[in-house]
C-alpha cells in the first residue's frame, strides 16, 4: 500500500491522472502555464457542496482573468457525480463548466492526504476526513496555499480570490500584506529589505513606523501571470 502524502505549503503539486466529467486529465498538463485553485468535495449530494459548486461556476470568470485554472475533486463514481451535477445545475441556476475529478477509489484523495491512512484501497469513500480542502498552486506548480474547512460550513469563495490576488502580488514584489488586505490597499515592505534598498525598490516612498513596519502604496504585479 502506498504511503499517504500530505500536501503542505511549499510542496510540489504531485502528478495525478484522473477521470472527470470532461474526460481524462493529467493534472500537470492541464495546469501548465497557469495558477490553479483545486477544491475538494468529500461527497456528492450534499447541500453545502451544491452551493459551493454553483458559486464557483459563477465566479470562474474572475479566476480566468487571473490566469487561474479551477478544478474540483469529489469522492464518488463518475455516474454518481453526473447526477449530482445535474442537481447543482438545476438548483443553483448554472452550468458547471470546470472539470471535477471523480475519485471513486480515493487514490487522488489519498495522494493529497485527504483520506485516513488506515483506509483500505478501493474503500476510501468510507474513510472520509471531516473536512473539505482547498489548494492554490502557483505557475511553477508549487503549492502556495492549503485550507481545510469543516464540512458543516460553506467556504467563502471570495476569500480565495483575495488570497490569489495577494499571492500573485507578493510573488513578484518584495512586500507582505496586512490583515484584511484587499487589492490597492497599502502594503508592508518585507522586513529583510534594507531601507537603502527599499528607497530604490519603492519609488513612491514609504512611511516607517518601526524599522520592520514600513508602509508603502501597493505596487502592480509585474509578471504577466
TrEMBL record:
InterPro entries: AhpC/TSA, Peroxiredoxin, Peroxiredoxin_AhpC-typ, Peroxiredoxin_C, Thioredoxin-like_sf, Thioredoxin_domain
Pfam families per record: 1-cysPrx_C (PF10417), AhpC-TSA (PF00578)
GO molecular function, one term: thioredoxin peroxidase activity
GO biological process terms held by the UniProt record: cell redox homeostasis; cellular response to stress; hydrogen peroxide catabolic process; response to oxidative stress
The entry's keywords: Antioxidant, Oxidoreductase, Peroxidase, Redox-active center
Signal peptide: none
Domain Thioredoxin, first and last residues per copy: 7-169
SUPFAM superfamilies registered for this protein in UniProt: Thioredoxin-like (SSF52833)
One Gene Ontology cellular component annotation held by this UniProt entry: cytosol
Record's keyword annotation contains Oxidoreductase: yes
PANTHER family: ALKYL HYDROPEROXIDE REDUCTASE C, THIOREDOXIN PEROXIDASE
Role summary: Thiol-specific peroxidase that catalyzes the reduction of hydrogen peroxide and organic hydroperoxides to water and alcohols, respectively.
UniProt family annotation: Belongs to the peroxiredoxin family.
UniProt protein name: Thioredoxin domain-containing protein
Biological source species: Aphanomyces invadans
Amino acid at each position: 500500500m502506498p504511503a499517504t502524502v500530505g500536501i503542505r505549503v511549499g510542496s510540489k503539486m504531485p502528478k495525478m491522472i484522473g477521470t472527470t466529467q470532461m474526460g481524462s486529465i493529467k493534472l500537470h498538463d492541464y495546469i501548465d502555464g497557469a495558477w490553479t485553485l483545486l477544491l475538494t468535495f468529500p461527497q456528492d449530494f450534499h447541500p453545502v457542496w451544491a452551493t459551493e459548486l454553483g458559486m464557483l461556476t459563477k465566479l470562474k470568470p474572475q479566476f480566468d482573468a487571473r490566469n487561474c485554472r479551477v478544478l474540483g475533486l469529489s469522492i464518488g463514481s463518475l455516474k454518481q457525480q453526473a447526477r449530482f451535477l445535474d442537481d447543482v445545475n438545476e438548483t443553483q441556476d448554472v452550468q458547471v463548466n470546470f472539470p471535477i475529478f471523480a475519485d471513486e477509489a480515493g487514490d487522488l484523495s489519498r495522494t493529497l492526504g485527504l483520506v485516513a491512512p488506515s483506509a483500505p484501497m478501493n474503500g476510501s469513500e468510507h474513510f472520509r476526513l471531516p473536512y473539505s480542502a482547498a489548494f492554490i498552486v502557483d505557475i511553477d506548480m508549487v503549492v502556495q496555499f492549503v485550507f481545510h474547512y469543516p464540512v458543516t460550513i460553506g467556504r467563502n469563495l471570495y476569500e480565495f480570490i483575495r488570497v490569489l490576488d495577494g499571492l500573485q502580488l507578493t510573488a513578484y514584489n518584495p512586500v507582505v500584506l496586512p490583515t484584511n488586505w484587499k487589492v490597492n490597499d497599502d502594503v508592508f515592505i518585507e522586513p529583510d529589505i534594507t531601507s537603502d534598498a527599499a528607497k530604490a525598490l519603492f519609488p513612491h516612498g514609504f512611511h516607517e513606523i518601526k524599522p520592520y513596519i514600513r508602509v508603502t502604496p501597493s505596487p502592480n504585479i509585474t509578471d504577466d501571470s
